[in-house]
Amino acid sequence: FVWGEESGMLYESSFNMGDTLNGASGLDIDVERKVVEQELNELQAEGASEEAITLAMKDLGIKRAKIYGWPNTYVFTKVMGEMFIEHLKENMSVAIVRPTIITGTYKEPFPGWAEGIRTIDSLAIPADMVVNAIVVAVVAHAKQPSDVNNIYQVGSSLRNPLIYTNLQDYAYRYFTKKPWINKDGKPVKVGKITVFHNMASFYRYMTVRYILPLKGLELANAAFCKYFQSKYNDLNRKINFVMRLVELYRPYLFFGGIFDDKNTEKLRLVAGDNGVETDIFYFDPKCIDWEDYFINTHIPGIVKYAFK
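Structure (tokenized):
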């Protein structure tokens, strides 16, 4: 996530204090902290509601992140965390593990365990493989000098990429054969979903299907003395929620990066040569059969542990 919306091959290189993705100068973490504190203090002094403060602070975070090339606060704070580690480690040996989107467990502690629903795309890796990579990295760096390359990108995009369109097919096939039962005890029917290949087509769809009808409802509401106010408010709230959610995940919907994992692969090979039980501490993405994993492990795990 520290790479934001970068595309192409993304290497296991570190970020130093003040580095930015877009070449902008002036990134100072202390200054960023003060900007956040000042905005928060001003909002509280004005008596703003908690909801208003939350929205304002989210917007501020996104604004500050975009100044330096990152799309949102989530990834901006991740990279600042790495900067602090590199800056403060001195002679301490450290390792930074960068997992891609983490999915349900492959084998341990049992197949399919998931803590919640996450976004999924071609950059995925099961949770237990991430844990194993962390454990092996800790052992490998325990007696290494602090200047040894310490970045490990753990993902599948280079060695075993997952095709996004296949995910839709896996989910459709699974829930067609084994419908999810909702809280009313009724099976949820699934269908083929509409797939957009760029943001422009999505915005056109939303405009024609939802935003223009909402404008019509707004006019009707005004003409009939706010008779439709409740319905208008409900639809407006739902549309705003969807658009905000899409904007949050937009950087990853059409992500064009591939994560180099030479350090991670070297770590795996060295671990095997040094007698580490690689059948226990496994993290090779090439061993994953994505179709079998999603249909027989990940999706059943989501239903059992996340939908409960």
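The CA atoms of residues 215 and 232 lie 9 Å apart. The first helix runs from residue 29 to 45.
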